[in-house]
Amino acid sequence: MDRSAEFRKWKAQCLSKADLSRKGSVDEDVVELVQFLNTRDQFFTTSSCAGRILLLDGGINGFEVQKQNCGWLLVTHKPCEKDDVIVALKKANGDATLKFEPFILHVQCQQLQDAQILAVRSTHGLEVPLSHKGKLMVTEEYIDFLLNVANQKMEENKKRIERFYNCLHHALERETMTNLHPKIKEKNNSSYTHKKQRNPEKAHVQCITKENDKELENDDDDLGINITIFPEGY
Question: Which residues are within 8 A (CB) of 90 and not within 5 positions of it... i.e. 6 or more apart?
């Protein structure tokens, strides 16, 4: 079986599995993007989140939050109201932490060249402790301020998803056009090979196209994309 057939088999197996996320389905704001990637032969997605605001109740031995070991007091993929947080905080017994987590997408790529199309960056988040041992440590005014910040980040996150989708769509269109013109493809492959030889380890970890980088160069923080290359030993 050739590698393309192996990748198609692996993709079919992964996409046929049940969605094990808490929600059990793809978030509305990234459905189109996920479906678009999964229709491409060289990609498939393994998990995603459109971005969310959470209130987590952790242990009482410090403020470090480990989501698998704490209670989920509140989670929303939409802008959050202060009253909802205040009500949820009453259920906290440990160290409650308010978090905003930006869009994240895990993508399997057939080849390293395919991964070049995606940008890999993510620091657009927020994490603030609100209570300790069940006791609220901040004022409601401060909670209101934090939610304004988190909601602004949520709105910006949505814009970045749309911008990323458009950049990706255009990049794949260019790739298709390149494949239709052998001379252009040969030139691009030569340039890629030269860069790979110059710094192969960096290329394997993070591949960013110049075109996409220019589209997003005005952003301080970009979207989180986890890329995995199809393993040789599969």
Answer: none
